[in-house]
Amino acid sequence: MRRSGTRYSVRARATLVTVLVSAVLLALALSLTGRVMRDWFRNRSQDQTERTVQELIFDIDRGLRSDPVPVGKGQSDLIQVETLDGRVIAASAKMRGRPALVVPDDTELINTKVCPGYLDRCAWVYGIRMRESAYGRNVMVLAGSPLPVLTSVWALSLLLSLLLAAFLTLIGWWTWRAIGLALEPVDRIQEEMSEIRASNLSRRVPVPQTGGHFRRLADTVNDTLARLEEAATRERRFTSDASHDLRNPIAGLRTRLEVALDDPDDHELRPAMRAALTDVERLGAIVDDLLELARLDSLAPMPIESLDLSRLTRREIERRGPGKPITTRLEPDVRVRASPVRLSRVLHNLLNNADRHARSAIEVTVAREGGQARLEVLDDGSGVPEDERERVFERFSRLPESRGRDPHGTGLGLPIAREIAEVYGGSLTIQDSPSGARFVLTLPLAQDPPAP
């Protein structure tokens, strides 16, 4: 109901605004049109009467005198010849026996609108006074032309009002219909969205084929649904994998403790305690990874400082225990802005991954490149197939080789490393190399000067 009410509210407001604006513009346009029409009809009647009077005066000057006065082609049929006191001495057949249209008095020219009661509508009367004529001295030759009904104020106002009402009705109907048709894709999107639940995130809203804003809206909604579906899938996979990864060390730890408790008091407990400690360390590593993912997902802030990436890399390498030999090429004073704790975690994860897959050696490089700090970790292992390079950065995703080399891994190290890199405006990718895997971390160079 709310969706429908909102839609009709939008349509109603848009239609009302359109009708009001149209009413103002149409009222001005029709008012101007009415004025032009009225003047045009009046000028037409005036021209007819003037032409009729001029032709009559020409005939009278030639000595023609007749009663009734003949009406020529294109002339007005309301003709009178009057004395100055208003006595009609000659008239056209239609005006015989009618009172004077206008009492001339002593005027020389008549050009006015009259509305005598014996005519069904008003007329425009034009007259010229003749000093000498075949009808006598000082006579007024008059001709009248009936004015169209539209020249009257009330008739013209009524017509313009009807036209305005008709136009506004048409504009309102068309606006209402056009907005309704335009909002249909939104209605379909809303209806589909109302049916989507957490259990059916695979559904998508219909995409209008008309293009424009609504198509982009549908594409955006579908992209959002795709991301939600991916997030839900990752969450389900996270729950399943985390449960599995936690269950194994917990079960092993419980078994070892039960065995230790069931054995005689003089039993050597050191091997069991050492195995239990290993399980506890594994549990701690899993929990640390899960907590780091939770912090990254929640965008939890951590202290940022300007640090030397080369120095941090050297320190992380020196802290490592026995493993594959590492050669370094570290350009000095390559400074970035990041959390040293998180950046150390990225280096730790990359070096652990390289140590796990390398055959005999690892190479680490830090250098500046085009306004960025670039760190490369290269191993001489079997490498990562090009079509699998993005998959290794998915949470809990582990390639067969990785499972074989480290069956107890969680598949979170590389995803955490990439997300930390992206938090600080950088990237972590796998690039081509002659042999082995080549992980490349880029971060923006720090703009502030190094601290003394």
Automatic annotation (TrEMBL):
GO molecular function terms noted in the UniProt entry: phosphorelay sensor kinase activity
Keyword hit for Membrane:
yes
Looking up InterPro entries in the UniProt record yields: HAMP_dom, HATPase_C_sf, HATPase_dom, His_kinase_dom, HisK_dim/P_dom, HisK_dim/P_sf, Sig_transdc_His_kin-like_C, TCS_sensor_his_kinase
* CDD domains membership: HATPase, HisKA
What EC number(s) does its UniProt record assign? 2.7.13.3
At the top of the EC hierarchy, this enzyme's class is transferase
Q: Which GO terms describe its cellular component?
A: plasma membrane
Compartments it resides in: Cell membrane
List keywords of the entry alphabetically. Answer: Kinase, Membrane, Phosphoprotein, Transferase, Transmembrane, Transmembrane helix, Two-component regulatory system
Q: Which reaction does it catalyse?
A: ATP + protein L-histidine = ADP + protein N-phospho-L-histidine
Question: What is the recorded name of this protein?
Answer: histidine kinase
Q: State the organism of origin.
A: Actinomadura syzygii
